[in-house]
Amino acid sequence: PSVQRDFLFVEAFTEALFRSIQPEVKDVTLNIASGSYTALGDLIAIIERITGKAAVVNQREVRAIDTRVVELDTSRTESVLDWKARVQIDVGVEKTVAWLRSLTPN
User: Fold this and answer.
1) 22/48 Cα distance (integer angstroms)
2) Residue 65 confidence (pLDDT)
3) Is the pTM of the predicted complex or chain greater than 0.70?
4) Whole-number Å distance between alpha carbons of 25 and 103
């Protein structure tokens, strides 16, 4: 089974970070995350669909120190910052791929 992680698009992160450094936000620990998780296998499939290329996947045995699921509770962040991640994973990947393509020639 694929491990699952909480992925967050960089624009969403920077918006939350900016809100968190405002003077009225003090002495509070916040989880800045999407609040949901995606299996790495699903992420690979999304990347393959968007890029039109097959990924070369090198699967390794799960190590004892690996956490199978990482999903952060963002309820305090949503309340304190009046913020919630709104970029879905496929949209974030599409934007990232478009940006990367803009940096390199075909």
Assistant:
1) 39
2) 85
3) yes
4) 36
